[in-house]
Design a protein that fits this description.
The complex is a heterodimer of chains A (about 325) and B (about 200). Chain A has about 325 residues and is of the alpha/beta class. Chain A has eight helices and six strands; from the N terminus they run αααβαβαβαββαβα. Chain A has a five-stranded mixed sheet, sandwiched between helices. Chain B contains four helices and ten strands, in the order ααββββββββββαα. The termini of chain B are far apart. Classes of the chains: A alpha/beta (about 325), B alpha+beta (about 200). Chain A: Pfam families: ATP-synt (PF00231).
Chain lengths: ~325, ~200
Amino acid sequence: MAMAALRREGRRIAAPLINPHPINPLRSSLASSDREHTLLGVRSISTQVVRNRMKSVRNIQKITKAMKMVAASKLRAIQTKAENSRGLWQPFTALLGDTPSVDVKKNVIVTISSDKGLCGGINSTSVKISRGLHKLNAGPEKECKYVILGEKAKAQLVRDSKKDIELAFTELQKNPLNYTQVAVLADDILKNVEYDALRIVFNKFQSVVAFVPTTSTVLSPEVVEREAEAGGKLGELDSYEIEGGETKSEVLQNLTEFQFSCVMFNAMLENACSEQGARMSAMDSSSRNAGDMLDRLTLTYNRTRQASITTELIEIISGASALEG
Amino acid sequence: MLRQAPRFLLRRASAAAMRWSRPFSTDLPAETAGDSKFVDAWKKLIPNIDPPKTPSAYMAPRPPTPSTIPSKLTVNLVLPYDSVLSAKEVDMVIVPAATGQMGVLPGHVATITELKPGILSVHEGNDITKYFLSGGFAFVHANSIADIIAIEATPVDRIDQNLVQKGLAEFQQKLNSASTDVEKAEAQIGIDVYSALNAALTG
């Protein structure tokens, strides 16, 4: 295959030599391979251009490899925290059930996304699911608002749903995630947003290569009471005695607020893990791609180099044969 | 280059076959009624995207209420950063409910209670393990499972007496110098926690 390419190159290069183009033997064409003159529609890439391209691709490969290592170390740090926090929301689901199909007037979709990019498709997935939930819960007398955590979802949702965005929080991961920060955030959201049902959309971390889009539903205390009376999953709630001097509605209010902060904490940790995992695989495939490009460019470089050597030889030989005969 | 093609195809096919034959370990056999309603509604409106999963898909379903009172109580104590006890079979737990210490035995009536800062003691045979809880909620279900969700739980032997005294004095001083309601409330909360800690150490 290389010989055929050389022959092709030779034929291509030989064509312009027939023209009255003075060949300067003093010029060393190998040392400074500048772009050759384009004659008769002949295209030839010089080795300098290919070398530059190879240098930049090599740099990109190094950068993406480094980013993958960084993401791997961040993932290790946060994965244990996420797995330990998984027990936090289970008691609430065991008590209050899981009611994603609840029909309420005021829906609030809390979309959790990352601030930084280069993490694959997880943010787009979250936004797609949020838009899907919005469509599912749209209807007469029903309203559906967004609360956005993270820059990436905000950038995507602001384009077509700007009027539906209630609150947006960014720069949440400047300090490592802890429960106090999330509790304050949850408090903020609950105070400023009217809701009957909060639907939290995030990517659950299943493994380093698998992230499952998930939605958790937290109901407001009034809706919990309504559903408990209606029966169904929450029907057993009335059988629970409420200990304490406070009224049932106060306890339910505290309960739902606590549930929201616990579910948010787990969701944010899972999403952060998914982000790092997705970034790892994105950077890995990028380095691999850069490696492939480098291989191809090396072949092109060698071909170009050999072609210019062949050209040089042809020039010399044809010049010598012109002098002789 | 074409020589590699069969290898690629074989790899692709075997990967696909592996994906289909090995189910996710988190998938549970039965979907609950609410989930299937949600999934159906989603599939009708948005057929191109898979519906998101919901928390019940990641949780083992709880056992139903048995007809006879079981001999042991199953306790789960969870914190935001750790599950201290998960499905531990014990004889009795005493939780620091807002109305005082509440003992929970197997067969206790289903209860939801808020917790105030205090001691949780877990009785297993002759062992008693004590944790100081910072507050949270406790659910006792009819099937003798108790879920205790707290923000912080430390074993009592890790609490430093001197720091407790210092903290108590500090918050009492803050209460005296507090001007706004918010500051007063914060100082009061601090005093409550530190007095509970004090009582935990002495009592």
